[in-house]
Amino acid sequence: MRILGVVTLVSPLGEYGGPVRVAVNQLQALAARGHQVVLAGATRGFERVPREIEGIAARLYPARTLVPGAGFAGLTSPGLLRSLSRHVGEFDVVHVHAARDLVTLPAARLAASRGVPTVLQTHGMIDESRHPFAAPLDAALTRPALAAARAVSYLTERERGSLVAVGRGRARLVELHNGVPPAPAAEPADPLELLFLARLAPRKRPTEFVAAAASLAGEFPEARFTLVGPDEGEGAAVRAAIARSGAPDRIRWEGALPPEQTGARMRRATGYVLPAIDEPYPMAVLEAMSAGLPVVVTDSCGLAGTVERTGAGLVVDARSDSLREAMRTLLADPPAARDRGAAGRAAVRRDFTMDAVAAQLEAIYAG
């Protein structure tokens, strides 16, 4: 099959996060099974716009801010939409990693209007919203795109309920889990390092990680606590929290990394911590488990049940002391932490393979 994957934004430091990682993983797995695949999207930040992303042919066009102050939701890409208008008929299916934005929703509507089957994957990003931007956008683009799609995938029952509500029962819903490619096992560079690797955005709660680290630094003088990720609004608060932590030499923000380097950075750590609230299905957690790192997530994380069921790490509530105690548990008993990491690695190899995801996608695409 000829398959086009569409994402909102591709950038050098992966600021759009999980949806792009998912799209690339899927396209790589589908290409390995003999399909012709292309990644399309808006882009910014590259000195020269790449024609390939991790071995996948890419058609990327400049991002434009149409609605100032709306973040990713306010982006559009006239060049991308013009290209799709000319070339979308070359594909057998268009897999849109959709959000409430002016890149992916117009792309989905354009493909459907040309008679090309679409599959929408929303990554928990289309939910019941009171934002004033949501109602008119849903009426004009979101609901028609959901209704026209051959299938709309969901990750969790919570996301399924949101799609039923937003789509008013017209979307053809299918459950589709994410997977990750096999990863080498972690080889920690330090005896004890807990890692926060995510965007520094309010929902990710990076300052909670810093606060917990500051309270544990004296108890574990050999431990390091590291943040890696782009600033999405919390950078100044993180810097200030590190400065007053009393241990700025061991609590560090290393900045952002290109997406293709984050896996190697993760494998240098001994544990992964994501204090985020209401995170639908964080790919970084799966990637950490794949590398054999024990993980700490909150009970509102879409993978909390998996972490708890498989023994891959610790699940905490939103309170600061719960996070601190979970991090203390990993630091205080490294052998037990390694056992949790091994359990997570085994679970990913068993339940989250990209070959299984690709096979399910083939069935969905075929209708």
TrEMBL record:
Residues passing through the membrane, by range: none
Coiled coil: none
GO molecular function ontology, one term from the record: glycosyltransferase activity
Superkingdom, taxonomy of origin: Bacteria
Domain Glycosyltransferase subfamily 4-like N-terminal, chain residue ranges per copy: 17-179
The keyword DNA-binding belongs to this UniProt entry's keyword annotation: no
Keyword list, A-Z: Glycosyltransferase, Transferase
Residues covered by the Glycosyl transferase family domain: 187-345
InterPro entries: Glyco_trans_1 (IPR001296), Glyco_trans_4-like_N (IPR028098)
N-terminal signal peptide: none
Protein's name in the database: Glycosyltransferase
Organism of origin: Microbacterium radiodurans
